[in-house]
Amino acid sequence: MRLDIKSRRDVDLLVENINSKLSKPLKNLTDNCHYHTIIAENENILNEVEDKLKELGILLEE
């Protein structure tokens, strides 16, 4: 399943749909584990995303 989330607004809409029961959380569809491809304009943004995911405890590191 491809979500194609490109902005904070897209994230907000997905969360709104999940909360209103229009969509199911991904964890329910993927046995609690799934992967995302993150693309950013530069390395600094990727580092910020990685740091935040680590802070949240949801980054699976190989």
The helix content is: 40-55%
Radius of gyration: 13 Å
Structural class label:
mainly alpha
Count of folded domains? 1
- Uncertain runs are none
Strand content: under 5%
Biggest β-sheet, characterized?
Answer: none
Separation of the first and last Cα atoms: 23 Å
Count the strands?
A: 0
The overall pLDDT, averaged over residues, is: 80
**Number of DSSP helices?**
3
In sequence order, what are the helices and strands, one letter per element? HHH
The geometry reads as: globular
Walk me through what this model shows.
It contains three helices and no strands. It has one domain. By secondary structure, the protein is mainly alpha-helical. The longest helix has 14 residues, at 43-56. This is Transcriptional regulator. InterPro entries: 3H_dom_sf, 3H_domain, NadR. Pfam families: 3H. Residues 2-59 form the 3H domain.
